């Protein structure tokens, strides 16, 4: 790739809780450490959408934040669908994960329509699902994070789970699944933020953005990630 890799942070202003911004920083840093120039574009409602998005990241937010971005997200929908169909890697956390699905029905019974890029539905349950989470990814092993959501998400046949729950609630606290994957779109409830704690997930997204295999990075950041994984495994919920 001759131009910088463009990371687009969807709805940076309204959808950014529990350190989700760290996911963007991690992607940018790990790309730079490997010698790829990077441009990070923060996208907010009404902004022009960049023509050359290589990697998209979205964070969590309160129901009110989801309401604020909803109209703009739908206007952007066909563009995002085209990028997803082309295999553009995307990481959508919690509130954005829900809105990449078909809908989110809030605790008050309001329905916020999603894009339907992921075959899943979310309804608020009787209690919030809050706490540290450990999940097992089929290729990457244990992944840790933090969840805080009222929505309970149920997957359709068009997606596969991102991981299975070892500790915590995950998608709905019932079926043992966490997150969803379709093509290179990953949705997950894991804040934490996810990527600094689990650099292997960051590298998975980066590999798909730059279309090549990556050598592992040896350094303190990855040692810190391994340590934080061990601590999360030990900590009671
Ligand atoms: N508002 C959504 C819910 O409560 C998403 C929360 C979040 O992004 N942390 O389920």
TrEMBL record:
Transmembrane segments: none annotated. InterPro entries: Class_I_gatase-like, CobQ_GATase1, GATase_3, Lipid_II_synth_GatD. The active site is at 94 (nucleophile), 191. Substrate binds at residue 128. SUPFAM superfamilies: Class I glutamine amidotransferase-like. It catalyses: L-glutamine + H2O = L-glutamate + NH4(+); beta-D-GlcNAc-(1->4)-Mur2Ac(oyl-L-Ala-gamma-D-Glu-L-Lys-D-Ala-D-Ala)-di-trans,octa-cis-undecaprenyl diphosphate + L-glutamine + ATP + H2O = beta-D-GlcNAc-(1->4)-Mur2Ac(oyl-L-Ala-D-isoglutaminyl-L-Lys-D-Ala-D-Ala)-di-trans,octa-cis-undecaprenyl diphosphate + L-glutamate + ADP + phosphate + H(+). Residues 6-198 form the CobB/CobQ-like glutamine amidotransferase domain. GO terms for molecular function: carbon-nitrogen ligase activity on lipid II; glutaminase activity; transferase activity. Pathway: Cell wall biogenesis; peptidoglycan biosynthesis. One of its GO terms (biological process) is cobalamin biosynthetic process. Its EC number is 6.3.5.13, 3.5.1.2. Keywords: Cell shape, Cell wall biogenesis/degradation, Glutamine amidotransferase, Hydrolase, Ligase, Peptidoglycan synthesis, Transferase. Belongs to the CobB/CobQ family. GatD subfamily. This is Lipid II isoglutaminyl synthase (glutamine-hydrolyzing) subunit GatD. It comes from Georgenia ruanii.
């Amino acid at each position: 790739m001759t131009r910088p890799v463009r990371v687009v942070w969807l709805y940076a202003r309204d959808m950014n809780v529990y350190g989700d911004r760290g996911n963007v920083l991690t992607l940018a840093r790990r790309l730079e450490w490997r010698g790829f120039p990077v441009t990070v574009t923060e996208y907010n409602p009404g902004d022009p959408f960049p023509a050359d998005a290589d990697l998209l990241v979205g964070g969590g937010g309160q129901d009110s934040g989801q309401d604020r971005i909803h109209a703009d997200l739908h206007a952007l929908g066909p563009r995002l669908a085209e990028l997803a169909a082309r295999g553009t890697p995307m990481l959508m956390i919690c509130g954005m994960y829900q809105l990449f699905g078909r809908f989110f029905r809030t605790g008050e019974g309001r329905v916020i329509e999603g894009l339907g890029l992921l075959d899943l539905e979310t309804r608020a349950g009787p209690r919030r699902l809050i706490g540290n989470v450990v999940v097992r990814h089929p290729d990457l092993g244990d992944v840790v994070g933090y969840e805080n959501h009222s929505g309970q998400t149920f997957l359709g046949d068009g997606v596969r789970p991102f991981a299975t729950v070892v500790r915590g609630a995950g998608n709905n606290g019932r079926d043992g699944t966490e997150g969803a994957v379709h093509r290179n779109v990953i949705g997950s409830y894991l804040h934490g933020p996810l990527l600094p704690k689990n650099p292997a997930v960051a590298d998975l997204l980066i590999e798909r953005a730059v279309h090549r295999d990556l050598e592992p990075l040896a350094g303190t950041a990855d040692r810190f990630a391994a340590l934080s994984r061990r601590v999360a495994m030990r900590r009671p919920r």
